[in-house]
Design brief:
Chain lengths: ~300, ~400
């Protein structure tokens, strides 16, 4: 009897909890709110805009929207977007890494939480509001411009707003924290004993950094690069608020096709191109990264027997 | 009442629109916030005389000053910075419905969005430019107005009623009308500008990289056509080819921004030269400390004539409140207060005299003389509309280069 109860319990448990059940909500979410809409966008990108009162028609499918989206005027915006996002991602890494390193290795553990909290503080303010804040700060008649003129650093008002530079500055500001977090986590997990061991074995600081810290932090760096690069490339708020005519980005282009021009087919085609551009860039950099790692390992493999021989 | 009064308004806006909306709101230190309707004064709604409420023309349901019968909300789909926020507040206090505003930058944008929503947009009031109304009616985007609920309609000067695009005001009543010109920052520009051609020349030289144009497809086309002596209602594709070629290859690279409200941004000193609507220019001159540094010029030799109109959106869920608002805003005192804010002629009988008596500043930007009005040209919504939008998008993309 007891045996049978135990059996049936085990059986019931098996039925009640298939292994994928825990992931089911996420799957449903992704399929319905990600995959299907994206496929829909791809489908729409083959349509056209029949007239001012209709946003989309799909009775005739063609690649025409793609050739439109890749016309020189629009292509230029895609190139510019890639430039802004690559520079922006690199800048967040260059600014974020020293900070994360300092936070993880030089700051007393009890202060780390506080400092990390300070990095999060801007996130309590809406993205758009933060960006509009820069609009006021950078305006030719704004506080920064006034101060620079007062101190005699500049003779005339600051004309940074509505330039590519303003967008570059805005995206670095808006995405810096997304770089710092994964970097900090990776560097924080790094056992200080590793660096000490490296030092004890005679490695210089630079060599320790290059051969111990950096490889061990690389998952964090890759996560940070992806976390920043992907949303940054698709960002349109920063460009729409700070960019003016010059700092246009592909995200803003897509948004303006959907909202202002209401040409959903062209907007969809531009969105698809943007997605392909992001995937392509990530793939290229991933391949380059893998190649570098392979080369680095190979070069290390050669040095080992040499040192062994020298030791003899 | 001055603009310094605390203004609370609930605003839903796209990022681009929010930028325009919030510039001044932020600079003046007031934070965008919600005010929920009529919680204080709705109970004693009868004590302020309801505008026009004494008229026997009101319907049997008796809309006369009875806030209880109005819905509790009113949603505007509106141009930015287009009514005195204090008036929205007063409307809520007197009649009850709280107001929400969502903004658009061009008629094309508004029409496309309303069409996409097919009667379920949630908006009650929209303010299209007159020439767009016939197409909107044809596509079933507008409700008919019940003029018996708008007794203050009688306050509008006859010349501004019964317009060609809406005979007998079945779907619309005049909100205000105005024109397009430019505003120059004299600290940065020394060349005098007297025509649209000058505007283009200076824009490509002295003001290069520092010029803003309206973020609207038709006025952008107008800029070129007015400068070149072409009727801006042209449907000739050759005209549009020339416009596209010039703007995309020659002019676009000199544009700093596509901004429908450069006047509002005047305090920030972003542009040396801007294409601007007269009321927006006036708002800017009112806001800056040194208006003498700037110069307004009315477009020449020809320029735009537009009239924006109060309309009720098809499928509006708060029609009573919408009618009450239109009636409220057509009250002469409210109209004058609104004019003081937005700087456009509201077409209400006696509003010019009242504005002069009140010694409002910069009235030459609000009221135009006969010689000026003779150069005004109403636009048209015709077969070239799609082409206009298409070229406008190309210019925008090209301007990034």
């Amino acid at each position: 009897m007891a045996q049978r109860v135990a059996d049936s319990e085990r059986g019931a448990r098996k039925i009640r909890a298939p292994r994928f059940a825990m992931a089911l909500p996420a799957w449903i979410w992704f399929v319905f709110f990600f995959s299907i809409p994206v496929l829909w966008i791809v489908y729409y990108s083959f349509g056209y805009k029949p007239n001012i009162f209709k946003t989309i028609a799909t009775d005739k499918l063609s690649f025409d929207r793609y050739s439109e989206a890749l016309s020189p005027e629009f292509l230029h915006v895609f190139k510019q977007t890639l430039q802004i996002s690559l520079i922006g991602t690199l800048l967040t890494l260059l600014i974020g890494f020293p900070f994360a390193y300092w936070l993880a290795t030089r700051v007393a553990p009890r202060w780390r939480g506080v400092l990390l909290g300070l990095v999060i503080v801007p996130f309590f303010v809406n993205f758009l509001v933060r960006t509009v804040g820069w609009l006021i700060l950078l305006a030719p008649g704004g506080p920064l411009s006034t101060l620079l003129q007062k101190w005699g650093i500049r003779d005339e008002p600051l004309h940074l707003l509505q330039t590519r530079g303003a967008v570059q500055l805005g995206v670095v500001y808006n995405y810096l924290a997304l770089m710092i977090f994964p970097l900090f986590v990776a560097l924080d997990r790094l056992d200080p004993a590793m660096r000490e061991a490296s030092k004890d074995l005679g490695a210089s600081r630079w060599k320790t950094f290059r051969q111990v810290t950096l490889p061990l932090a690389s998952p964090g760096i890759v996560a940070g690069l992806l976390l920043v690069f992907i949303p940054l490339t698709g960002d349109y708020i920063t460009a729409a608020v700070l960019g003016g005519a010059k700092g246009n980005m592909a995200g803003a282009l897509v948004a303006s096709q959907f909202t202002t021009a209401q040409n959903w087919a062209l907007g969809a085609a531009q969105a698809v191109i943007l997605i392909i551009m992001i995937l392509g860039t990530v793939t290229v950099f991933a391949l380059v990264g893998l190649a570098i790692r392979w080369l680095a390992r190979r070069s290390r493999r050669i040095t080992v027997p040499l040192t062994v021989e020298a030791a003899r | 009442m001055t603009k310094k009064d605390e203004q609370f308004l609930n605003i839903l806006a796209s990022p681009a629109a929010a930028q325009r909306m919030s510039r001044r709101a932020f600079v003046s230190g007031s934070v965008v916030a919600a005010f929920s309707g009529g919680f204080l004064l709705a109970a004693c709604g009868g004590d302020e005389e309801t505008p026009g409420g004494t008229s026997g023309a009101t319907s049997a349901t008796g809309s006369t000053g009875a806030p209880a019968e109005l819905e509790d909300q009113l949603n505007f789909y509106h141009w930015a910075e287009y009514d005195d926020p204090a008036l929205f507040k007063r409307f809520t206090q007197e009649f009850g419905p709280s107001t929400k505003i969502d903004v658009y930058a061009s008629n094309e944008e508004a029409i496309a969005k309303l069409t996409a929503a097919a009667g379920s947009s949630g908006y009650d009031i929209v303010v299209p430019t007159g020439v767009f109304i016939p197409l909107m009616v044809e596509n079933d985007l507008l409700e008919e107005l019940d003029l018996s609920k708008i007794p203050n309609f009688a306050n509008i000067e006859a010349v501004y009623t019964n317009q060609p695009w809406d005979p007998n005001n079945v779907h619309s009543v005049c909100k205000d009308w105005g024109s397009t010109g430019w505003i120059i920052d004299k600290k940065q520009i020394s060349t005098p500008i007297t025509t649209w051609q000058d505007f283009i020349d200076v824009g490509m030289n002295e003001a290069s990289g520092n010029v803003s144009v309206l973020d609207a497809p038709n006025e952008l086309a107008g800029l070129y056509f007015w400068a070149n002596g072409i009727d801006w209602t042209t449907e000739d594709t050759a005209d549009y080819d020339a416009y596209e070629a010039f703007m995309v290859s020659d002019f676009a690279s000199h544009i700093k921004a596509f901004d429908s409200y450069p006047g509002v941004a005047l305090t920030q000193g972003n542009y040396a030269l801007s294409q601007v609507w007269n009321g927006d220019a006036r708002q800017g001159l009112n806001a800056v400390d040194n208006p003498d540094d700037y110069e307004w010029g009315l477009g020449a030799p020809e320029t735009e004539l537009w009239m924006d109109n109060w309309c009720i959106v098809k499928g509006a869920t708060h029609p009573e409140a919408a009618h009450a608002w239109i009636n409220f805003i057509l009250d002469p005192d409210n109209s004058l207060q609104d004019l003081e804010f937005h700087g456009y002629n509201t077409g209400i009988t006696g509003v010019k005299e009242a504005a002069e008596a009140a010694e409002l500043p910069f009235l030459d930007l609000v009221f135009f003389d006969e010689a000026q009005v003779a150069t005004f040209r109403a636009g048209a919504v015709n077969s070239s509309l799609d082409r206009q939008v298409e070229i406008y998008n190309k210019i925008k993309a090209a301007a990034g280069g």
